[in-house]
Amino acid sequence: MKNNMAITAILASVTFLSACGGSSDSSSPGAPETTLPINVCETSSGLTTVNNGTELNFNVEQQYYVNQSASITVGVSNQNSNDYQFNWQQTAGPALDISSENSPVLAFYIPEAADYSFTVEATSGQISYSDKISISAAQMSQQLNVYSDHQVVAGNDVSLRLGQINNQVPSNIQWCYFSDQQISLDLTNAERPLFTAPDNIAEDTFVGLKVTADFAGETLTDEVFVLVTKQNAITSPYFDSPIAKTYAYNSASPYAINAQRCVYSNQLNQTCELNDLPLIGQQLDSETIADVMDRVVVSHDWMGRNFEQFLTEADPNSDFIKLLQSVSAVVISYDIRPSFYWVATGAIYLDPEYLWLSPTERDTINEAPDYRSDFGNDLKFIMPWRYVKNNDYVSISYDRAIRQSRTIADLTPRLASLMYHELAHANDFFPRSTHSQLQGPTLIDDFYRRANSNSLVSDQLQNIEPLTSAEIYGLAAVSFLGETADAIQKAYVPSDVTSFFLTDYANDFYNYSSTREDAAMLFEEAFMSHRYQIQRDVAVTDTDNLIVDWGQRGRIGADELSTRAAFVINQMMPEVDGESLLNGLPAPINMIAGQDWFDNVDISPSLSRNMSRASTMSNISSDANAVTSDNRPAIQVGREHRDMPIPSR
After folding, report:
1. Which H or E run contains 425?
2. What's the pLDDT at 617?
């Protein structure tokens, strides 16, 4: 990094994208796009370089203010930061909530006027540099605040967030850019600009933005700087587009080096062998949280800390520890969206949106929308889903514009369902019963041996009782795989879809996206109901008013699904008898056709939570007149994860 990192340009051309409904949490389809003029900024307060006579250079802001996001950036003289690991520590001042202590950009929110001091160490192999820096924060009247300065790799997607003032959105929001380097800016949501960092940089470079807006009769401004770091050339056929810089959460782990290079690297030229990175369960006596944490790879330390806390507090039956035996590693990074499991590496990849606890942690996560957001827009139906308990949603929606924290209990329902799903994929391919038989040399080799012999759990499930609706398979290809709907599919109305769906024994529309998803969906819903008493709703509705044609709560408890679901459970979690588990689940409850999706949340009578599948259905309440608010929960259609291609050997 040069002594004086230049503020480079951004944004000479502008791309406007339309906002629309998506395959995961989203707002209603068809929201109008917003366009704003973009100009070159006339002035910038810029950054000041500070050198204390060491190899480290600090870039600091001209002034720091209370109740403002702020940052300090460090670099090594005449070197890029890619080869260095950083570690910041606060040494003086009121305690700050810091979530980027391992980044060259130390980002924080200033709670009060005071002097603050920090130390930083930059390490590369046997080389280590350290230094200290101090700043002073002053009081200021009303101001804009952009969350937040941070570091991204060249070519990575970037999101920023303009904060509200007194829970109000400023008006007349205008963005401008510094310097002359072209980059496209998406201002569909003026409070959340999106862009792709330049990838043709010769050295670590700052991208700078300035926002101006009106509030309470004043015109206010703020500036934000994103450090774009130059990375090694991409040589990997597996990760062939820019990805975040990640590292082993436990640097002392015996698998730290191999986990880092084998599961999320632009230099992964061929898949690693099992001898280099075996499945966790191939280790002797490996069923502990510590063994799992030895395989965790992160872009920020808080992701590993929160994941470990989740395993400690929210997995009393050690389900996830057992299921994690079938993965090689867990990757959590700011640029992973949506989550997935990939047999090429044997790892699961988690979107950190499921794990943040504080606003500063959430600030580090990229907000780029799920790429599948437009799939299925030509169809006349949707199949929304939700998880509920005691006639209420279990997943809380947190507005990005509001600074708020949450607890492990708050995030557990959503993260648990994701974990059951992704780990079902891993245990579909390599259940623990197969670990002693794996031959290698790579996991892909063993996958093909099992697939060619029809030994995968999902393959055996299709042999026992396959899904047969060609119509639903075709519609799933449109909704989840991005295929173009034909005229017949575009003409289907909700009642058609209901008739197709009820001829089979699936618990969700997503089962039809692949045989692998069929098995995973059965496992996920069964264990969410069994372990957390959280039930899943699914329905067929129209797209405009969300009027339910057919819907059901707890479909996994239906008699007709028991053979398929019990088989999957017995194969993936043999400690739990599948038939006994399913017999203990609440009986399914039908929704009230003709009412909308939101009113149908209140359909469980008080006794239904203790009713088994064998109980009479005559106790179902017809009182489903829950009053909906103007701020209704987000509609969930599709899934929050994706399938990854199976690479050739």
Report:
1. helix 408-429
2. 27
3-state secondary structure 614-629: CCCHHHCCCCCCCCCC
- Write down the pTM of the prediction: 0.88
Boundary (domain end) residue, out of 229, 256, 289: 229
List the alpha helices (DSSP H) in 144-184: none
10 Å CB burial of residue 96 (0-12, 13-18, 19+) is middle
Beta-carbon count within 10 A of 453 CB: 9
Q: Per-residue DSSP letters for 428-473?
A: HHS-GGGGGG---SBHHHHHHHHHHTT-SHHHHHHHHS----HHHH
pLDDT digits (tens, 9 = 90+) for 169-194: 999 999 988 866 666 788 889 999 99
pLDDT in tens, 522-541: 999 999 999 999 999 999 99
Is residue 241 a part of any domain in this protein?
no
- Residue 626, Cβ density class (10 Å: 0-12 exposed, 13-18 middle, ≥19 buried): middle
Contact 207, 37 (CB under 8 A): no
> What is the radius of gyration, based on Cα positions, of the chain?
26
Domain of residue 161 covers 7-229
Closest CA to 530 of 591, 580, 603: 580
Which position has the token pair 């203790």?
610
Asked if residue 623 belongs to a domain, the reply is no
Extract the tokens encoding 539.
């329905």
> In a 10 Å sphere around its CB, with 0-12 CB exposed, 13-18 middle and 19+ buried, how is residue 192 labelled?
middle
Whole-Å CA distances, 94 to 73, 74, 149, 378: 20, 22, 20, 54
Per the structure block, which two tokens stand in for 356?
A: 């943040």
Give the whole-angstrom CA distance, residue 609 versus residue 611.
Answer: 6
pLDDT exceeds cutoff 50 at 14: no
Whether residue 468 is contained in a domain is answered as: yes
Conformational region of residue 369, where left means phi above 0, alpha means psi within -120 to 50, and beta covers everything else: beta
User: pLDDT, tens digit, for every residue of 369-426?
Assistant: 765 555 668 899 999 999 999 999 998 888 887 889 999 999 999 999 999 999 999 9
| Angle, alpha carbons 226-227-232 (nearest 5°) | 135
Q: Which of 592, 639, 82 is nearest to 341 (CA)?
A: 639
| Cβ 36 vs Cβ 174: under 8 Å | yes
CA–CA distance, 351 with 345 (Å, rounded to integer): 17
184 and 304 inside one domain:
no
State the Cα–Cα distance between residues 628 and 545, nearest whole angstrom: 13
In this structure, are 416 and 533 located in the same domain? yes
In this structure, are 163 and 273 located in the same domain? Answer: no
Q: Can you give the pLDDT at residue 36?
A: 43
Q: What's the mean pLDDT in 566-582?
A: 97
Q: How confident is the model at residue 18 (pLDDT cuts 50, 70, 90)?
A: very low
Q: What is the mean pLDDT of residues 102-116?
A: 96
For β-strands 161-162 and 146-147, DSSP reports them as antiparallel
Determine the pLDDT at residue 401: 78
Q: CB–CB of 379/489 below 8 Å?
A: yes
